[in-house]
Design goal:
Layout: E1 2-4, H1 8-19, E2 25-28, H2 36-42, E3 46-48, H3 54-59, E4 67-70, H4 75-88, E5 93-97, H5 101-111, E6 115-117, H6 119-132, E7 136-142, E8 145-153, E9 174-180, E10 188-189, E11 202-207, H7 209-220, H8 228-233
Parallel strand pairs: 1-2, 1-4, 2-3, 4-5, 5-6
Antiparallel strand pairs: 7-8, 8-11, 9-10, 9-11
Amino acid sequence: MVLVGLGNVGTRVLRLLYDRDVPLVAIDVNEQARGVPLARELGIPLIIGDASRESTLRSAHVQDCRALMTLASNDVINLEAALHGRNLKPQLRVLVRLFDGDLAARVRKTFSIRFTRSVSYLAAPAFAEALMEREVIGTISVERRVLLVAEVVVGPGSALDGQRVAVVDAAGAVRAIALAEFGEPRPLWRPAPNRTLKARDRITVVATRDGLSRLMRQAAGTGDDVDPIAEGAGAAAP
């Protein structure tokens, strides 16, 4: 496997692949990159050069490798390396690190590069679980997006108290998948839309971040339009 980029992410991947006995060749344009000393210590073949140049990839024998991973911190370098790799070996398996979501969508469509990943997107589930505290019980990654699996308790006198399960669902935002009625030990999976919600019932939903925030406000009956995630995370939220 050929690995491009030995920054923070590339160094971690280098170590993981080495620990799994995957044969590697590493490339980075900067001899002072974080992972360069590690590659040398582990005896991994290392090329100091510009991976966006086809000649650099040829020297790494990309045309003979199993897969190419481009993990530099620059979208342009990663994409150019991936495209040159495909020119050298049309059926090459490629994983590209891209920060820009719109660019990633265009790349997948135009160049048939299936795997594009962003570190911030991959880290989003951990941030979501921490910020939503106990309500989030799991996450589901869909392409470059994250859905939250959460459990919400109907507050007494809240906007959901006495309403039907159908009011929970919101197209593209929230879907109720289970209802645990207060005092009942087992949840009802796929509850009927006309079933009535009561105080202290627990609703399990699959939702977007915004959808879950709205549902939590409804369940608490605050009438508050403040997004608890945005308020708590500020500019640091992924």
